[in-house]
Amino acid sequence: MQLAPTATTDLAISTLKMAMSDKDDFAKAAGCETPWDMAGRIQTVRVDNGPAYTAGAFSTAAIDAGIAVDYTVAGAPYLRGSIERVFSTIHTKLISGFDGRTFSNVVEKGDYDAGARASLTIEELAQALVRWVVDVYHNTPHEGLGGQTPRNCWLSLRKRVGVPLAPNEDALRACFGITVERRLRSEGIQLYSNKYQSTELQSIRREYRTGQLRVRFDPDDIGHISVDTPKGWLKVPCTTKEMHGTSLEAHVASRQRLLAQYGEEAAQSEALVKKALADLRRLSDESRKNRSIASPVFTADNLAKLDAHFSDDRLRVDEDFEGDILGLDEPNETAQTKHDPDSPITHIQDAPPFLGDDDDDDYILED
Question: Is the residue at 62 inside a domain?
Fold first, then answer.
């Protein structure tokens, strides 16, 4: 479940990844008392014919994850009865309780001034949605489930039938990660001023004399990367242990603040680096505590913007830095159609999954 102003392919892929992952961090951040631990490998996903789902990147990500995509017949909403009922329930049981709705059509809306009556921020709406879904909907008896609550039904079926194991972090990175090209050097691979190195990676460099390689990373955790080598995809750790479990957003924000305050030369001093790493860890931990279904989703466009801030993997100081170096807070309504196919940043569309390891209203609700 994701909340955003516009439905995009990046958002759809992120939702697919979220559906297979443990979502308890989102529940805790919203103050839920019930766990949101539904996770597992999806076999089939049914979607409509919107451009976010018909895009090649979405179908490729699904195929890489072993998911069959079933497209509904256009113009036949009765074939989507279950999800339409869910949306209706969310509207009547939750959204209708707040001022500022735009209603489902102009006739129903009448002269109601939704903007003047708006009562929630996007983050507040996201928190309310998660709290209602996890603590209310999951614990309310459901006629379609024979009177069971959705959560009890899940727990019962999981115990009786079992659930295909959710993909591990390496498989998720392989299927849903973002890909860039980087040069393999003697010191390893550099990505946004981090170095990634392993014995196996250097062995490949010496044996194959490789230059540019495709690198896939998860912006939610840049502690490891996957490298497309002549021998297949290889998982490579970051040489800075503090990066493990750290998001790209937290890392860049911390690095940018350090450079803006002290400059590049001072930023290399051991004491300042250690302080920055400690701050980064706290920032990363805080970001996990505040995870939201309305959090921005990384796109090829804002990652390309990030690349522009690096030269030879050294981040340039942005004197106008205000905490949004990636442009995540900027509206990106054209991201769906303006992606450059020649850009080195994209979702992989021609590689198999990585399996190895060396070590209601104005907003679109994706569910």
Answer: yes
